[in-house]
UniProtKB/TrEMBL annotation:
This is Apple domain-containing protein. Keywords: Disulfide bond, Membrane, Signal, Transmembrane, Transmembrane helix. Involved in sporophytic self-incompatibility system (the inability of flowering plants to achieve self-fertilization). Pfam families: B_lectin (PF01453), PAN_1 (PF00024), S_locus_glycop (PF00954). Residues 1-27 form the signal peptide. PROSITE patterns: PAN. SMART domains: B_lectin.
Amino acid sequence: MAATKQLPAAAVFLLLYLAIRVRSASSALHEIHRGFSVTHDSSYTEFQPLLADPTGVFSLGFLRVDSSQLDLAVLHLPSTTALWRAQASRSVLWSASVSLSFNGGLVLSDSATGMLWSTATDAGERVVLLNTSNLQVVGSDAVLWQSFDFPSDTLVQDQNFTSTAALFSRDQRFSMRLGPSYLALFMELGGGAAPVMYWKHSALEAKGQIVPDEGPIYARVEADGFLGMYQKATLVDVYSFDSFNRRIAGLRRLTLESDGNLRAHYWNGSIWIQDIQAIADSERCEIPTTCGAYGLCKPDDTRCGCLDDSVQEGCLPASSGDFCGSGGSEFGVLRRKGVDLTSKDLMASQKVASLEECESACERNCSCWGAIYNNASGFCYQLDYPIQTLVEADDRKEGYFKVRTEGGSGGGEAVKRARVALLTVGSLVLSGTMAFGAYRVWSRRRMQASVDEEGLAPGPYKTLNSASFRSIELSNSLSDRK
Ligand SMILES: *[C@@H]1O[C@H](CO)[C@@H](O)[C@H](O)[C@H]1NC(C)=O
Ligand SMILES: *[C@@H]1O[C@H](CO)[C@@H](O)[C@H](O)[C@H]1NC(C)=O
Ligand SMILES: *[C@@H]1O[C@H](CO)[C@@H](O)[C@H](O)[C@H]1NC(C)=O
Ligand SMILES: *[C@@H]1O[C@H](CO)[C@@H](O)[C@H](O)[C@H]1NC(C)=O
Ligand SMILES: *[C@@H]1O[C@H](CO)[C@@H](O)[C@H](O)[C@H]1NC(C)=O
């Protein structure tokens, strides 16, 4: 079964690979000079090579992305992996009349809508693609622009990652940035909202200290198999990969992937071998989107449920913005015991006298989406972003969550809005064992739900819905979906 599914994929990959190899050998330049202009030829099905590096391993060209769009990209030809993408300001169809020109700066433009992207330089004399995959616009005596300073989702070996750059996952939902003494992953919220940190690696400073006022730190993937953090020439941290010091000759890359995880790989000559992932499979609950909006992640086996115990894929609808001003100030409240933040140590907190105090601070604050109160420590954590995945915890951690009600902005389709309206304010009182039971129930219901979706027998959802979860009634949620 699996083999028959993989075969066509492998064949397509091989054909694509061969097509790129053959055409790149015959048509790509090694240097671009002033006056250069080329229009996209859509007879190329996946990639139109324009500029090759001296080794023939990398190529700059028009790449087909997301099945129908076009972007300018630097490809690692043996794997057809895009190591860099221009990320044009507007999306443009593969069939559009797009051209790339060079008259001091590289300019990507669409004949219908104008400039899509440029290097914003005007004194360049030539463009070269180095054997590191770095694309450079070179002037009379200096490099004026290089793709290494504008990474997309990937860093390659020997590429300096500075605090002025950020890595974004392909879907733009996650970013990686450098702080004064650490490297961190963030969930992007869009709309000018501050991103939310969910993973942080602080420099250990074992070999060298970070000296204040000695300039910002930067990071670089090294051939020896680690991500080094440096201040000037001083190595202040070694984040080692599995192949650390194993003398791997193949190209290394570090990519922020669309599941929010950061992974290193090396090329073994025929495939990319995964070398490390920042967040282990067993810690997937730490990625705030793992179980979606209002999701609940069980740390033992990273299984997903919902804060409101609903059985729908996606739990309650995702929201955006806040409750201040015109965005809509009405909300319902969902309470749940036994939940905690995934990355509490990265969040601000305040000590309060009681759960009530924690909740009312959030209730009164229009930028607050929810709060977690720790009855053991007395700390109150306020979430100032739309609720994402929380993690199951012991009963001393109590959650209070705002849910946008009908008429508020954000939210999804009408069906989902109807569901929110059904949500009644309630409080779940679950013992630890009951919460565990809920997961078992949940996975059975989920199985049943998927059977149902395939048009087989409708399942007895109600009977599976344990009486202890009755305080939140979502009685029509399943028929709503139809
Ligand atoms: C890449 O180019 C540099 C000089 O520009 C050279 O020293 C190095 O050996 C080259 N590497 C490969 C793999 O060709
Ligand atoms: C990376 O930074 C080091 C140290 O500042 C510098 O010597 C090197 O040229 C930089 N590499 C690139 C590709 O910019
Ligand atoms: C790369 O790894 C794959 C899978 O482990 C292996 O089959 C292949 O032989 C390796 N290629 C080289 C050139 O070592
Ligand atoms: C409201 O909540 C935000 C985010 O949690 C916080 O930064 C702000 O200080 C709070 N405002 C008040 C008045 O408590
Ligand atoms: C919270 O803490 C108080 C005082 O320490 C205790 O009396 C109460 O039972 C705790 N509540 C829960 C749900 O653990």
